[in-house]
Amino acid sequence: MSKRKTNKKATARKTRKPRKLSADAAAEEIVKTVTASEEPKKASRDGLCVFALRLTREEREAIHKAAGPAKASKFARTLLVAAARNDAAAVKAIMKAAKPEA
Predict the structure, then answer these.
(1) What is the spatial distance between Cα 29 and Cα 20, in angstroms, rounded to a whole number?
(2) Rounded to whole angstroms, how far apart are CA atoms 56 and 4?
(3) Backbone phi, then psi, for 19, in 5-degree steps?
(4) Positive or negative, the Cα torsion across 57, 59, 65, 70?
(5) Which of 4, 7, 20, 39 lies at 20 to 30 Å from 69 by C-alpha?
(6) Which residues are CB-neighbours of 100 under 8 A, at least 6 positions away?
(7) What pLDDT digit, counting tens, does each position of 49-75 carry?
(8) CB-based burial, 7-20: b 16+ in 10 Å, e otherwise
């Protein structure tokens, strides 16, 4: 088989021209840039560790009902830490905020 001959010349890559924005759109772009740079950064996970519990299915369901959707871990963590620190006011506040669907 013979090699295919092409007559294509190497062309320089085309670059996009910067788009022109109206005054309102330019202001919105500036606001987006500023707010994106000011977003709070997540805390470092270096100091975290895992604390595991074994629960019955009923206990797990009760925690999920009390905490609400997607908040069970945070609920359990804050309640355990408050109890460990003997912070009765925090424990009562957490219990009051919990809304079991029973």
Answers:
(1) 12
(2) 71
(3) -75, 145
(4) negative
(5) 39
(6) 62, 65, 66
(7) 888 999 999 999 999 998 888 889 999
(8) eeeeeeeeeeeeee
- DSSP one-letter code for 45: S
Whole-number Å distance between alpha carbons of 79 and 51: 14
- Exposure string of 54-85, with b = 16+ CB inside 10 Å and e = fewer, is eeeeeeeebbbebbeeeebeebbebbeebeee
pTM exceeding the 0.90 threshold for the entire prediction = no
Which pair of tokens denotes residue 74? 């945070």
Q: Which residue in the block uniquely carries the two structure tokens 């330019």? A: 26
The token pair at 47 is: 């100091």
HSE-up of 29 (CA within 13 Å, CB side)?
8
